[in-house]
Amino acid sequence: MAYIVALTxxxxxxxxxxxxxxxxxxxxxxxxxxxSRQVVELGTKVLAKISERFGSETLEExxxxxxxxxxxxxxxQPDGKIWLNQFLHPLICQExxxxxxxxxxxxxxxxxxxxxxxSLQDYADRxxxxxxxxxxxxxxxxxxxxxxxxxxxxxxxxxxxxxxxLAIADDVIDNSGxxxxxxxxxxxxxxxxxxxxxxxxx
Length: 202
Known about the structure:
27% of the residues are buried. The protein has two domains: 1-27 and 105-202, P-loop containing nucleotide triphosphate hydrolases (Rossmann fold); 36-103, no CATH class. It has nine helices and five strands. A five-stranded parallel β-sheet has the order 2-3-1-4-5, sandwiched between helices. α4 packs across α5 (78-101) and α6 (134-145) crosses α7. The protein has helices at residues 15-23, 32-38, 45-54, 67-76, 78-101, 134-145, 149-158, 162-167, 179-201; strands at 3-8, 28-31, 107-111, 126-131, 171-174. Helices cover 55% and strands 12% of the residues. With 202 residues, it is α/β, with parallel strands linked by helices.
């Protein structure tokens, strides 16, 4: 298996933007969020079980998952969150492992938002944290997801704290800077990871 760099950060930190910057260097990216969406695609047995557990209202008229409503149900039912995690986690992990093995670049970037929350850092060779202030997370998420500030605060309270993420970081990108500065950071880290991966493979 290739050298694995786990990329993580809180909601609204810009993880996907940074991952795309690495992808421009032909780095293989395994996106856990994308995989979590794939396992609940229209018509899957997984989606049917979620609807059965949380109510048919969690499906839109088209049959796709109503993520906003499911999120509300989860926050109002703590045991529901536990059930959903226990149900989806093995399926997502299986696909993540499959894609990590198939990575073709010297190192693979594993984009995983809940790295700290699920104690997954030991599965990576290095951890890159995308860091922004809580205020920036709030503003970006309200704008992007078109949800209320309180809903964003609920999400933030359920995630690891900024300090907890930084505590397990090997590298940090401050994603509140200029686009040029961030591009330089990505370029520098890409070169570092190539060297680490080269040593790892010897």
